[in-house]
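Q: I'm building a small set of examples for a reading group on sequence design. Run inverse folding on the following structure and report the sequence directly after it, with nothing in between.
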C-alpha cells in the first residue's frame, strides 16, 4: 500500500505540473457545455424566404405578412420572376419561396379558391418540415379569415400548396450521408495531422528536421501534402458507400466536387497542423483535436439547422471549414449546382486554409524549446 500511495502521489504531482493537460481536462468540458447547451436548438425559425408576388394587391401583401408573422419565415426580398426565385433557392440565399399568382385577389373577390405555392429547400428535412407545417397553418388561418369576412362558398378559399425541392421524399439519408463525408474527413485528418510535429518531438527526430535547410512554411506544407491523397481516398470510398448503400443521389458534376474538395482537405489538415504546434504530447494533441471536432459536428449544420442557432453561434460556425464544405456537398450532390453558385464557399475554404497554415507556420519554431 505504501508503494501504491507513492505511485498515486507521483501521478497527481505530474498532473499538477502539466498545466496544459489539466486545463484541457477541466476547461474544455465547461466551454463545450456552455457553448453547445446554448447554441443547439431544434426549433427552426426565420428561414430566409423570397416572394414572387404577381398579384401585387393588398390581399397578396396581407398574405405575405401572414407568412412573416409565423416566425418560421424571414422575408429577405422580392423577386420579379420564377427564374430569380429558382436562383435564390439554388444558391442558398433563400430556403423557401412564396409564389402568389396574378389571379389571387381576383379569385378571392369572386368567391373562388385562390392557390398559393410555397417552394421549400428540402435538403435539410428538419428545417423543411417546420416550414411546411407553418405554411399549411397559414393557409388554414387565411381560409378561416376569408370565410368570416366574405362568406365564400368554397371550404378552403386559400389553398397553400407546398412543394419540397431537391429532396421531395424528405429522406434524412440525403441530408445525413453527404454530411457524414465531411465529418469523417474532419475527424480522421485532424487527428492524424494534430500529432505530426508532436510525434516527431517525442521520437527525437525533430532535431533532424530542424537542421535541414527547409523553411518553416516548406516544413508545414510537406507535413500535410501526403495526407491530401489520403483525404481523396477516403472521400471516394465514402461516396461509393453512400451511393450503393443509401441511394444518395449524385446530381452535380463529380469533377467539380473533386476539384473543390482539395480546398477542404487542405483547410482541415492545416487545422490539425496548428493543433500539433500547440500541443506538447500526443495526448494533448488528441484532446485538442476533439475540442475542434465536436464544434464542427454541432455548429456546422451537420446535425442541427444553422437557422435555428443564435446569431453568435452562427458566426462561430463561419470559422469552421466543415460549415462551408457541407453547403458545397449538399449543393453539388443534391442540387446539381455549378461553380458560380458556390464560389463564395470555395473562397471561404481557401481563406480558412491559408489562415491556419500561416498561424501554424508562425507558431512553429525550428528549435527544441
Amino acid at each position: 500500500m505504501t508503494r501504491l500511495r507513492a505511485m498515486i502521489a507521483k501521478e497527481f504531482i505530474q498532473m499538477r505540473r502539466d498545466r496544459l493537460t489539466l486545463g484541457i481536462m477541466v476547461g474544455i468540458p465547461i466551454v463545450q457545455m456552455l457553448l453547445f447547451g446554448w447554441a443547439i436548438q431544434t426549433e427552426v425559425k426565420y428561414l430566409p424566404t423570397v416572394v414572387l408576388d404577381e398579384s401585387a394587391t393588398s390581399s397578396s401583401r396581407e398574405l405575405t405578412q401572414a407568412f412573416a408573422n409565423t416566425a418560421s419565415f424571414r422575408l429577405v426580398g422580392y423577386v420579379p420572376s420564377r427564374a430569380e426565385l429558382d436562383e435564390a433557392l439554388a444558391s442558398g440565399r433563400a430556403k423557401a419561396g412564396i409564389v402568389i399568382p396574378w389571379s389571387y385577389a381576383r379569385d378571392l373577390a369572386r368567391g373562388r379558391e385562390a392557390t398559393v405555392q410555397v417552394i421549400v429547400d428540402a435538403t435539410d428535412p428538419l428545417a423543411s418540415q417546420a416550414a411546411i407545417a407553418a405554411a399549411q397553418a397559414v393557409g388554414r388561418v387565411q381560409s378561416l379569415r376569408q370565410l368570416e369576412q366574405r362568406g365564400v362558398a368554397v371550404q378552403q378559399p386559400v389553398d397553400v400548396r407546398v412543394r419540397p425541392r431537391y429532396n421531395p421524399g424528405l429522406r434524412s439519408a440525403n441530408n445525413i450521408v453527404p454530411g457524414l463525408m465531411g465529418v469523417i474527413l474532419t475527424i480522421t485528418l485532424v487527428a492524424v495531422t494534430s500529432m505530426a510535429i508532436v510525434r516527431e518531438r517525442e521520437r527525437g527526430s525533430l532535431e533532424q528536421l530542424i537542421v535541414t535547410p527547409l523553411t518553416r512554411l516548406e516544413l508545414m506544407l510537406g507535413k500535410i501534402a501526403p495526407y491530401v491523397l489520403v483525404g481523396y481516398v477516403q472521400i471516394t470510398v465514402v461516396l461509393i458507400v453512400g451511393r450503393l448503400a443509401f441511394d444518395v443521389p449524385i446530381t452535380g458534376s463529380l469533377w467539380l466536387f473533386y476539384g473543390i474538395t482539395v480546398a477542404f482537405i487542405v483547410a482541415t489538415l492545416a487545422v490539425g497542423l496548428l493543433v500539433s504546434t500547440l500541443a506538447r504530447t500526443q495526448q494533448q494533441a488528441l484532446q485538442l483535436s476533439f475540442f475542434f471536432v465536436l464544434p464542427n459536428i454541432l455548429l456546422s449544420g451537420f446535425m442541427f439547422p444553422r437557422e435555428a442557432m443564435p446569431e453568435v453561434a452562427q458566426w462561430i460556425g463561419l470559422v469552421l471549414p466543415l460549415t462551408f464544405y457541407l453547403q458545397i456537398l449538399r449543393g453539388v450532390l443534391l442540387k446539381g449546382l455549378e461553380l458560380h453558385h458556390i464560389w463564395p464557399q470555395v473562397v471561404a475554404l481557401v481563406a480558412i486554409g491559408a489562415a491556419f497554415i500561416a498561424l501554424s507556420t508562425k507558431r512553429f519554431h525550428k528549435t527544441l524549446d
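The chain has a mean pLDDT of 83.
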